[in-house]
Design brief:
alpha/beta; Spore Coat Polysaccharide Biosynthesis Protein SpsA, Chain A; three-stranded antiparallel β-sheet; 11 helices
């Protein structure tokens, strides 16, 4: 049983070092740590050199020539680890920090022939169990699924007294992925760039085997926040996040990828719900936002690109750069 950890990093060098220290400090030693360095501009590689991490034979640092996003980074890292012959690959972002015994607690379940994914429980920055969000969850039936919630997060009641728990959905914060499953279902969709790549992939992994959660294994998720990106304001549709125009580009990927998933019936959310959501989004822009025409064009482009399966990941930044001088 050979296990490699893959850490995708971009412009969070301090968090990356803390993640690496946690991986090197595991009570059960890993066979390899592969860093996918997404062309950071904050001196990440220099810090790794100065800290001696690149001299450690356990660590391989792959410095990319361009930022291919979290989706691209995970796809690249998983590909490299599987091609190098590792049986399981432990995926995480640089803002993750597994407890010292997280690998040891998951290891017995990596021998199960029917498992495609084994995941530790998510913890907050302090290490307390975190059941918020869709990091670990189960899929809802079509009659209950919505745009905002296609699945139900697992709860403390779900995990109480359980050594393992079957799940349907798992973010890329800390799951172990079977190389056998990768051979059967392929790699994550690198073209997604960011957002929903983990949902799409874990739903695909279910074709190869079970996805199980190990409640006694904890991986902290520090979730570095983007400050000043948006604010929550009251609207006739209820409280809504209003995104600053100069930060709008980052929302393109999630909306495009969600539209792709719904159009291809990968998730249980119905197309009619997506179109209704889009109509309310346009109405909200007309009522509350600045740069109304540009915003509507932006959201329409995100939707139509997703429906058509067009993946131009340079488009949102270029669009914003070209539109700002004229607004």
């Amino acid at each position: 049983m050979n296990v490699a950890a893959v850490v995708v990093s971009f412009n969070r060098k301090a968090l990356l070092v803390e993640c690496l220290d946690a991986l090197l400090g595991q009570t059960q030693k890993l066979d390899r740590i592969i860093i996918i360095e997404n062309n950071s501009t904050d001196g990440t590689v220099q810090l790794l050199k100065e800290g001696g991490y690149l001299d450690n034979p356990l660590i391989e640092c792959v410095v990319l020539g361009t930022n291919i996003g979290g989706a691209g980074g995970f796809s690249e890292g998983l590909r490299r680890a599987v091609e190098q012959g590792y049986d399981w690959v432990w995926l995480m972002d640089d803002d993750a920090e597994p407890d010292a015994d997280a690998y040891r607690r998951c290891l017995p379940y990596l021998n199960a022939d029917d498992c495609a994914l084994v995941a530790p429980l998510l913890g907050d920055a302090a290490g307390a169990a975190d059941y918020g969000g869709m990091h670990r969850g189960v899929l809802l039936p079509p009659s209950e699924a919505t745009i905002a919630s296609m699945g139900r997060p697992i709860s403390a009641e779900d995990t109480e007294g359980r050594a393992t728990l079957d799940i349907d959905l798992c973010s890329f914060v800390g799951p172990f992925i079977s190389a056998k499953a990768v051979a059967e279902v392929g790699l994550p969709r690198h073209e997604f760039f960011i957002h929903y790549d983990d949902i799409e992939y874990t739903l695909r992994l279910r074709k190869s085997g079970r996805l199980i959660l190990i409640p006694r294994a904890i991986i902290k998720h520090k979730q570095a926040q983007v400050v000043g990106r948006s604010e929550v304001r009251a609207t006739i549709f209820g409280p809504k996040e209003r995104i600053r125009y100069d930060k709008l580009w980052s929302s393109y990927y999630g909306y495009r990828n969600l539209a792709w998933l719904i159009a291809r019936k990968v998730v249980p959310t119905r197309m009619s719900q997506l179109l209704g959501w889009h109509a309310r989004l346009v109405a909200s822009v007309l009522l509350y936002d600045d740069h109304k025409i540009s915003r509507i064009r932006f959201w329409n482009s995100s939707l139509f690109d997703g429906l058509a399966g067009r993946f131009d990941n340079e488009k949102p930044r270029q669009w914003l750069a070209n539109s700002l001088p004229n607004t």
